[in-house]
Amino acid sequence: MMNQSHDMIAEQKQIKKERGVFYFSMLILFFVLHGWNSFFEVLPAPVVLKTFVALQLAAFIYWLTTLILFKRKIKAAIFTFFSFFFFLFFDLIQTVAVTLHKNGIHLSEWTLLLVLLSITLAVVFFWSKPMQKLKAFCRALLIVLVIFESLSLIVKAVSPQQKTDSFLTAAPAKRHTGIYPSVYLIVLDEYAGSETLDKYFNYPNNRFLYSLDTLGFRVVKNAGSNYHYTVLSMASILNGEYVKLPAGRLTYADESYRESIRDIYYNKTFSTFSELQYKLYNYSPFPINGYPSKYTNRFLPVDYWLLLHPSVFDRVVESLPYFIARRLGNPQQLERLFKKQVLLNNQILDEVLAEAQQKKNTPAFCYMHLMMPHAPYAVDSSGKLNMDFLTRTGGTFQQKKDAYLQYLVYANNKVTSFITQLKKQTDGNAVILLVSDHGFRDQLHKNDELSKFNSLAAVYLPAGDSIRWYNGMSNVNQFRIIFSELTGQKLPLLKDSMVLK
Fold it and tell me: Same domain for 239 and 135?
């Protein structure tokens, strides 16, 4: 009896000593290491370390806050552990919400998260037993998972780097001019094709198309993207092939996103231009082997967003400044935040023109990815911030369409001016490929899923011979034709298809 009493007293002392920080710290370490394993080549160590420290700091502050409610450090730690499990692995909650919806239980992912947090809070609050066996199991499991992820990273670090394929099937032939032309790829994110603009926006886009025609461009009619998701679409453009996925894998699943990020990182286009001795420039949000990304945002998760996607933090972190500015009624701060997004596009345009002005002995390949007319549809047709739309807490679909069209017209003016200057800087001797990764993605008509694939495609060739570009072509064949034109090698074209699911 005395021994049992002594054991209970010792156990209670141990519980009081145990803060439980270990549990949520190890959970975050596992989460970050697992994410790094998924994108080992793409994510540099400093980015991973900064993300880890930020998450640990957030969890520690969360733990201190919940300590006010629970009074006991171990209870606050256990609640923090489960809370951050829900936050970090939010995709599991999304999957459950979708499954429940299919079975007639209509709960949003956010409502389900709130329910799970409420249940966890109640259980932990009224929990009185030590649960030493459960804690020992969790401790051992976390240690095993962290060791496994660490060993996987070590194996990847010492393994040979993946070899990047090329478009070329033979050694590149010498051009009769002795030098290849510079090539500029301009991607306008979410730019709808003229057929969709005419049909659903009552805007045939004739002025812009005429400007391109005047500048010597061949505009492809009924052009299409192969995917309506940017990352998959860019993987197919830059590799000249459809994204290869395991049997049974959903095309637009998160796993497919991860595969496509790696496909972009080791893409054939950069590899082939490097083989042709081009100087390469990456003005996109995607990291490419040897060429870091120019910018990042939550619409195209790269950099630390790759680790946070699709967690709760992916949804909250970037939106938080906008939310706070709206709640505080601070239109000036909102204006600064949106203006920053617009200035990024302008900065890219200016930097590319400055680079093109420098006369070089070697040709250049430049990939520009402009977030326009992509959401949030920041400016109107005159280039003024569309604050009337941006400050709305709600709005109709028609208002969204109007704001999108305003931004598209602004994009037309910016791109026309840019191309005019670019042709002047390069003496008209550069190839310019102007495409969109997909069209307007919102469902414009319930019976027309293909409208989101209808995109922009136009090409300027110094020699003016653009007969290879045909109406109805899709993005997967763009660089197959480009490299056939440049090298004289006849690369076969793929069937033009739009992947719906």
Answer: no
Q: What is the DSSP string of 226-268?
A: S-SSHHHHHHHHHHTSPPP--TT--TTSHHHHHHHHHHHHT-H
Per residue in 305-335, pLDDT (tens digit) is: 888 887 888 877 777 777 777 777 777 887 8
Q: Which pLDDT does position 404 carry in this prediction?
A: 94
Count: domains in the chain: 2
Q: Are 206 and 388 in contact (CB under 8 A)?
A: no
Same domain, 421 and 289: yes
* Within a domain: 207: yes
Question: pLDDT of 337-386, one tens digit each?
Answer: 888 878 899 999 999 999 988 877 789 999 999 999 998 888 999 989 88
Same-domain check for residues 284 and 147: no
Q: Which of 432, 434, 158, 166 is nearest to 289 (CA)?
A: 166
Domain region containing 10: 2-88+129-158
In this predicted structure, the answer to whether residue 457 has a pLDDT above a threshold of 50 is yes
> Cα 308–312–314 angle (5° rounding)?
40
Q: Comparing C-alpha atoms, which of 211, 204, 200, 215 is closest to residue 412? A: 211
How does DSSP classify residue 293? -
pLDDT confidence of residue 295: 86
**Inter-residue contact 163 to 407 (CB < 8 Å):** no
Report helix, strand or coil for 434: strand
Please give the structure tokens belonging to residue 119. 């249940």
The CA–CA distances, whole Å, from 130 to 16, 120, 134, 141, 274 equal 11, 16, 9, 18, 62
CA dist., res. 432 & res. 217, Å (int): 9
pTM as predicted: 0.87
